[in-house]
Amino acid sequence: MILRANHIRILLHAISAAIANPFFSTIKAVRIPYAAMLLLSGAIVLSALVLAGCSDSGNQSDSGNESRVDADAAEARVDTDAAEARVDADAAEARVDADAADSRVDAGVPERWSVTPGPDPASQTVRDMLGRTVVVPKDAERVIALRAGALRMLAYLDAVDLVAGIEEPERRSDRPYLSAYPELRELPPVGPHMGGDPELLVAARPDLLFLTFTSRGQADDLQARTGIPVIALEYGNFSDQRDLFFSSLRLMAAVIGRTDRADTLIAGINASIAELEVRTSGIPADDRPRTYIGGVSYRGPRGITSTEPFYPPFRFVQARNVAGDIPSRLINPIQGTYIDIEQLIVWDPEVLFVDLFSLRTAGPDIRPGTPLAQSLSAIRSGEVYGVLPYNNYAANYEAILANAWFAGKVLYPDRFHDIVISEKADEMFRLFLGRRIYDDIRAQYGGYRRLEPEEL
Questions:
Q1: What values do phi and psi take at 153, rounded to 5?
Q2: What are the C-alpha distances in Å from 299 to residues 120, 167, 306, 391, 392?
Q3: CA torsion angle for 27, 29, 33, 36 (degrees, to 10)?
Q4: Boundaries of domain holding 161
Q5: CATH number at residue 110
Q6: 314, 261: one domain
Q7: Which residue, 27, 323, 339, 402, shows the most beta carbons closer than 10 Å to its own?
Q8: Co-location of 237 and 304 in the same domain
Q9: Closest by alpha carbon to 410, among 353, 338, 348?
Q10: Distance between CA atoms of 235 and 248, rounded to whole angstroms?
Q11: What is the spatial distance between Cα 213 and Cα 235, in angstroms, rounded to a whole number?
Q12: Phi, psi (5° rounding) for residue 355?
């Protein structure tokens, strides 16, 4: 029997429906790997199609292919001298000026916000990222940033001098922007995390509030309860919402008079990502090691089975992420993505990265004598490395880029032979925060390094 295109579509559609069946929910509850479920469901549906004669009748809708296909170029590997020459030349071209870097990423993407003159010379009218219209002071001298990532954005814009108060948990955290600006810890607390306390906010006397991870209703309610203008922002991400983050950054900058700083930062981010992509282009798929990131922290440390299918550092260096084909419906960007240990053994990564914040939790999973230590090629060959955590009250974007440079140096040493990772990490911290703080970060987590068995 020959399966034509519409037969295949029927098969894919039926497999998808079969996996949603309660029978397979029971299978997942006992932690049978997803791949096994897929094969089992495929066998069942294929048998049904054979018995039915694979009829062409009926209208079938295409099911979405949720796996991402590795589209690595299949060029032959060049020798070391030629590769180094090409990297050096291309890297120079990748260092584009601010306007070129900005237009390349954001071309054709209209801004969702606006800042226009207000009803009087001392005010301005803002349409925020949620489409709300708010009148705010033209020259704000005191601002407060609430919820995940908002204070970090002010630090990115070199606007710490305007901050009038911070959420209580920020005072006790170890985030990079607090290492760069420890004076923030001395500011008055304005309530708990994720929104603050209205009475404390009023007492701090800010001219306006910035609020992330919110809705129109929540922003309006906070504004009504405090009498302080609230500007809603979107934090975005570095996977598929970089433009959203840039747009919010520009909005905040326009409101507080830091547009030049925003342009400089965005251009620097784009130039760094462009250089990473140039350095790692043209490597055949078979020459890209199978790679895995484990212990990814979500609201605290996690074990080795906590991972990130869309891990941005891997994407920037075109790494071969073994978890990259996990279907999107199984990925939770808030609570995290977790796999079975058996699945990690099946994937058998050649290079293993561990989030250093989770080292005490993930280390016991891979220490000598464990099933993973005996099974995984990466552990047997000593290819286990520590990277900086980036999930801490939303993403530390500077850590993401620094991790990407470290991953590139580990995975493609000939392409990154000129990179001293401690210097590159400091370059990223300075780009985002204006300070070279890698020594402080290294004191907290131990810094970028190969992880020895005794550390696990």
A1: -65, -40
A2: 44, 17, 12, 8, 7
A3: 10
A4: 98-270
A5: 3.40.50.1980
A6: no
A7: 402
A8: no
A9: 353
A10: 7
A11: 7
A12: -65, 120
Q: Which residue has 């429906």 as its token pair? A: 17
Alpha-carbon span 186 to 165, nearest angstrom: 9
pLDDT digit of tens for each residue in the chain (456 aa)? 434 444 434 443 444 444 444 333 333 333 334 344 433 344 443 343 333 333 333 333 333 333 333 333 333 333 333 334 343 444 444 433 333 334 334 444 568 899 999 999 999 999 999 999 999 999 999 999 999 999 999 999 999 999 999 999 888 888 999 999 999 999 999 998 888 899 999 999 999 999 999 999 999 999 999 999 999 999 999 988 999 999 999 999 999 999 999 999 999 999 999 999 999 999 999 999 999 999 998 878 999 999 999 999 999 999 999 999 888 777 777 677 899 999 999 999 999 999 999 999 999 999 999 999 999 999 999 999 999 999 888 999 999 999 999 999 999 999 999 999 999 999 999 999 999 999 999 999 999 999 999 888
> What total number of domains does the chain contain?
3
Whole-angstrom distance, CA of residue 151 vs CA of residue 70: 37
Put simply, whether the predicted model's pTM sits higher than 0.90 gets the answer no
Coil, strand or helix: which one is 129?
A: coil
